[in-house]
Design a protein that fits this description.
Neuraminidase; 5-stranded antiparallel beta sheet; 833 residues; 10 helices; 8-stranded mixed beta sheet; globular; Rossmann fold; mainly beta; 13% helix
Length: 833
């Protein structure tokens, strides 16, 4: 019997089994073949989401962007080609989704231009039809650009930042294949655009008869970076021809005011195009051959050059680097040669890059891992070494004033980050250590520096004298309370300017003037939808939880209404508890509408395991119980009568080089602690609990139903269940399967399918291109469970990548989850008809 026939027979049997009164609705199927969840869930799912802000860099206006949450399956099913890690739609040269297969970018429904501070609103008249994409402001806030995808092209549009009037730039068809396709130049009036060449011609036609076999060979040397999704890499000479055709772009300088487009250079496979602050020099990276059939385009050979475009018709090109194919990079390593090219924002044309000093391998012990180099225009001399880093270089943040920058480096072996105050203009000046802390630390996280955009579009530290500003999430044992601090770079003393209230969630957005007295925030609470507020700092301070916080007043700028007031009946609370070994844990408990205290209801646990080197950091609380409740995905099961044990802490604690040695034991310990606490609260019925998770959480789900008796059923979506199929590492496991075969076998549910008797629903996107979660993972686990007599159901969602995009697919997801959990969790222990 074929697998399809076996699946149909299994599905038919399950349908007979689940004819309970609660599921009579589930038997009616629309003509499309897709199913829908109950009405209450369907209505909540289809309710519009609150608009999101896209704030002008000038902070005197914002665009409120309303998104289309779920496109139709016909949009998701648009034909595309898989070329070197890119999914490109041949009809218009648009990207179908991200290289990892994470879903079609959402479309814009509408823009509203809002003036700050009075909130005056203008509706932006967007073009009818097509798919409008996210806006991109220029640095002065006088204009914004966006793309509109049609069946035959990707159009370029610009909008007036004051009036909201929009217009198309005629004759410019954007090529989105390799990203970075539309950028503002330093004059903030010109756009550099990767465009489809006017004389590109027709796409190559596949030969009727293959010219020969597809051949790959390896002549020694490790090739650990070959763990890629082979369906999306190149696989033949014809694929290479197609890649060349669709990646080829013509660079244009487009005047946003007049629409005039000036070609620069010749058509080529441009990867990175970035202007220097002087507006005269472009950093241009182009892809070269030979291509690889085992890795994606970002590892293909590259030529890096600087173009002088002062005279568009006579461009001078200065070569910087020729980088070979990087298909043998160590796990979690870096390629050899220059990388991370960027421009120094505080000089007209100084190029920066990084080079590894350890062969790109974190396992190698060396005094310094990276060096940072600089080369000034005209780029003909020898580069200057600015400094070396003991650990992997992470980046620089520059102050507007000379002689000050923040340098970041990361220790992969310890999960540790250090930040230094450095003087890039005097490499001999000793760096001053600013922060030295675990990347897992949340409670003591000092936050991230507030940046300021300059008129030329470069970003520098927001600075007043020697003071910079820090914004942070404000994690605490009681949940997140975002903050804004000031920090004196001379004394390293900080002051708290603002902190979100205890029963709300308010985040700093940006300053609205030249000083730090007024700033914009984004506020929400359990009952209040997200809206923008203008805050003004007072002169006084108040003591709060042992710290002094400046007083401030606020006024509303936007008035976005609640799209789903009926959902306000749902209650949630932060719950803290301990694992058996003393590790602190937490979850957010949601109770369904109409819940009566003291009654026990069925529940669903959702989690995503995370790796920690330090057990004291593993249980730090993240998230807030005071955010505005929005129901998406599994949370919609609240409307079917379930409590949700949400985002339960699932730390995998240990030495990062071998944390997965005790993965299963910690997984079960985490689940037991969460279940015991939910039952102790008197809310959850111990005999009616299900579990669900996505991606790495799906592996967690499958393992929990295989190796514990805590759950009556599981729903695993887009998971990876046989880690030997990703033999060169997974998550933060750095050893290969040949170095740690027992670890790979132990964490893989596939090898425990004979023990898996708890019902498991497996769902997967049929076009998942995420490297570790190929659709084969789902089909093979289903076959293994079925072959060993287990209860399972496999649902493959057509055309869907790693995250499910289409409205029909998400409705099917909820239909399947409610049907499965109603059958095996809600009615657990009750006689079946």
């Amino acid at each position: 019997m074929s697998r399809n026939h076996a699946f149909q027979r299994s599905a038919a049997w399950l349908g007979l089994l689940s004819l309970t009164p609660a599921l009579v609705w589930a038997q009616a199927k629309p003509a499309t073949g897709y199913s829908q969840p109950p009405k209450a869930i369907l209505e909540a799912m289809r309710a519009p989401s609150p608009a999101s802000p896209s704030i002008s860099p000038s902070l005197d206006r914002m665009l409120l962007v309303s998104w289309e949450d779920y496109p139709s399956i016909s949009r998701v099913a648009t034909p595309y080609l898989r070329l070197g890690g890119v999914r490109v739609e041949p009809g218009n040269h648009s990207k179908h989704d991200t290289p990892g297969g994470y879903g079609i970018p959402p479309a814009v429904r509408s823009f509203e231009l809002v003036r700050i501070p009075d909130g005056a609103t203008t509706k932006v008249q967007l073009p009818a039809g097509g798919i409008v994409q996210a806006p991109q402001w220029n640095a002065t806030g006088t204009a914004f650009a966006f793309s509109r995808v049609t069946d035959h092209s990707v159009e370029l549009w610009v909008g007036d930042g004051t009036t909201g009037a929009v217009r198309q730039i005629p004759g410019v068809w954007v090529n989105q294949m390799l990203g970075g396709d539309v950028q503002w130049m330093p004059d903030q009036k010109t756009l550099v655009v990767k465009a489809v060449p006017a004389n590109l011609g027709k796409a190559p036609v596949a030969p009727a008869v293959p010219p020969g076999p597809s051949i790959q060979e390896s002549m020694g040397g490790k090739g650990q970076s070959s763990t890629y999704e082979t369906r999306d890499t190149l696989g033949s000479p014809h694929d290479e021809d197609l890649f060349d055709y669709y990646a080829t772009a013509q660079l244009l300088l487009v005047n946003a005011e007049t629409g005039a487009a000036t070609p620069i250079g010749i058509p080529d496979r441009y990867l990175q195009v970035r202007s220097a602050p002087d507006g005269q020099h472009l950093l241009v990276t182009a892809l070269r051959k030979p291509y690889s059939y085992v890795t994606t385009f970002d590892r293909f050979p590259k030529e890096v050059a600087v173009w002088d475009i002062a005279v568009p018709g006579a461009i001078a090109k200065q070569p910087i680097a020729s980088l070979p194919l990087a298909d043998r990079v160590p796990i979690h390593g870096e390629p050899l040669g220059p990388r991370q090219f960027s421009w120094r924002p505080t000089e007209p044309a100084t190029l920066l890059w990084v080079e590894a000093l350890d062969g790109g391998d974190w396992k190698v012990k060396v005094p310094h891992r990276d060096k940072v180099m600089a080369l000034k225009a005209p780029f003909t001399g020898a580069p200057v070494e600015l400094f070396r880093t003991e650990q992997r270089y992470q980046g620089l943040q520059w102050a507007a004033r000379p002689g000050v920058a923040l340098r970041y480096e990361y220790d992969h072996n310890r999960h540790w980050q250090r930040t230094f105050i450095v003087n890039p203009d005097d490499p001999k000046q000793a760096p001053r250590k600013l922060w030295d802390m675990s990347t897992e630390e949340q409670y003591a996280d000092p936050g991230s520096p507030v940046m300021s955009i300059r008129p030329d579009g470069t970003w520098v530290l927001r600075q007043e004298g020697d003071t910079i500003f820090l914004r942070g999430g404000g994690a605490s044992p009681d949940g997140d309370r975002p903050f804004l601090d000031s920090l004196d770079l001379r004394t390293l003393k900080s002051a708290r300017l603002f902190r979100s209230g205890k029963v709300e969630f308010e985040q700093f957005v940006g300053f609205t003037g030249k000083d730090s007295k007024r700033f914009l925030t984004w506020h929400q609470s359990l009952l209040d939808p997200p809206n923008a507020y203008l805050r003004s700092l007072g002169k006084g301070v108040k003591a709060e939880a042992g710290e002094a916080v400046f007083t401030s007043t606020r006024s509303a700028v936007t008035h976005i209404p609640d799209p789903t007031p009926e959902i306000r009946k749902i209650r949630k609370r932060l719950v803290k508890y301990k694992r058996a070994d003393g590790v602190d844990l937490s979850f957010t408990l949601y109770t369904p509408p109409g819940y009566q205290e003291g009654t026990r209801v069925p529940a669903i646990l959702y989690a995503y395991p995370l790796d920690y080197a330090d057990p004291s950091k593993a249980g730090q609380v993240s998230g807030s119980q005071y955010t505005f409740t929005r129901l998406r995905n599994y949370r919609l099961l609240l409307l079917a009568g379930y409590a949700i044990i949400d985002n339960a802490s699932f730390p995998i604690v240990g030495d990062p080089t071998k944390a997965y040695d005790t993965y299963l034991e910690q997984l079960v310990a985490n689940a037991k602690a969460a279940v015991d606490k939910a039952v102790e609260l008197g809310v959850v019925d111990r005999d009616r609990i299900g579990v669900t998770g996505h991606s790495h959480g799906a592996l967690m789900t499958a393992n929990l139903v295989a190796h514990s008796d805590l759950f009556k059923a599981g729903v695993a979506t887009s998971g990876s269940y046989n880690k030997t199929l990703t033999p060169f590492g997974f998550q933060n496991e750095r050893r290969s399967v040949w170095e740690a075969p027992e670890v790979y076998r132990k964490v893989s549910t596939f090898f425990s399918a004979d023990k898996l008797k708890t019902p498991l629903l497996i769902m997967h996107g049929a076009d998942d291109a995420n490297p570790g979660t190929t659709p084969l993972q789902a089909t093979k686990l289903y076959e293994a469970i079925r072959g060993n007599g287990g209860t399972t159901r496999l649902v493959m969602l057509p055309f869907e990548p790693h995250w499910y995009t289409a409205r029909e697919s998400n409705e099917q997801l909820l239909y399947e989850m409610v049907r499965w959990f109603d059958t095996y969790v809600k009615t657990a222990g009750k006689p079946q008809p």
